[in-house]
Amino acid sequence: MALAPLPRYHARVPSWKAVVTDLDNTLYPWVDYIVPCLEAMVASLEATTGLPRIRIVQSLKAVYDKHGSNEYPFAIQQSDIFKPYERDFDSFSKLVVDPARRAFSSARERWLRPFPGVVDTLAEIRRRGLSVIALTDAPRNAAELRLKWLDLDAHFDAVYTLPGYVLPQNVDPEIRRRHEAGHYFSKKTRVIELPRRAEKPNPTGLRRILRDFKLEPSEVLYVGDSVKKDMGVAKACGLLGVWAEYGTYVSREYRERLAIISANTVTRRHVSEDGSARWPLAISSFVQLPQILDGARWTVPDRPARSRRPGRA
User: Fold this and answer.
1) Rounded to two decimals, what is the model's pTM?
2) Which of 91, 211, 269, 291 sits at a 20 to 30 Å CA gap from 275?
């Protein structure tokens, strides 16, 4: 007599429809990029103005704090460095602002790179038919420029940012013309500005994404480097949160250098607290996301302190 076949049991596999990802320190190492860029700009200002470094740094930090971004491109003419020269902005722009902007841009070209495997992984997620959406606490201008610079904007169905900043009165006419012509805006993806109150871990932005794309929380995977902000907003909205632990590996040297030149409010927005709480589901590289989508799970190892990358000069 033949035995009846045993029943088959299958674990439920989620039907993923989208991946929502943070940007800074999740797709690229923001600290490794911004520190040498700001230091190059400060060095240029020291050379052109003759002012002491401490005076320049404190003046810029006050502007960065006001605008919520270390990449606010008009910080020099908005700082008190400009006041003695405000009778003639054109000469100040040519002799001081332009060299500083070139120094920042040159450092950005050298240091701003995506983490290994990010481009291929984003392409693989889209190849599977999933939507890819970014949610960042950076102002629109800075986030959009970075994605364009890295040529990553084509990989996103949409990018949700905090409000962008407007052009000040004192600005190079060519920059104003290019801005009004849309030169600085992405032509490859939609960029949506959220209200400032939507800064994570406020769930407003993520809820807006779910509504705009008609998604259920169970259909979306969320990845980000901050336990408090990124994992907090994922938990609040009922999404599977994947902690980009690799994005928290910042050397002590770079943290100290960043503290000198960055406004504290901006640093808190972009850099996870050293020694912050851990999250159960963690990845050590962005390339592991497709495995998570396939059902793999990693837990954070029980160790007293995480290792850090050595600082780069």
Assistant:
1) 0.86
2) 291
**Whole-angstrom distance, CA of residue 279 vs CA of residue 313:** 31
CA distance 137 to 245: 18
Domains and CATH numbers, the chain: 18-30+113-293 (3.40.50.1000)
pLDDT value for 9: 39
Tokens of 259: 């503290």
Check residue 112 and give its pLDDT: 95
Tell me which residues of the chain have a pLDDT lower than 50: 3, 6-11, 301, 303-313
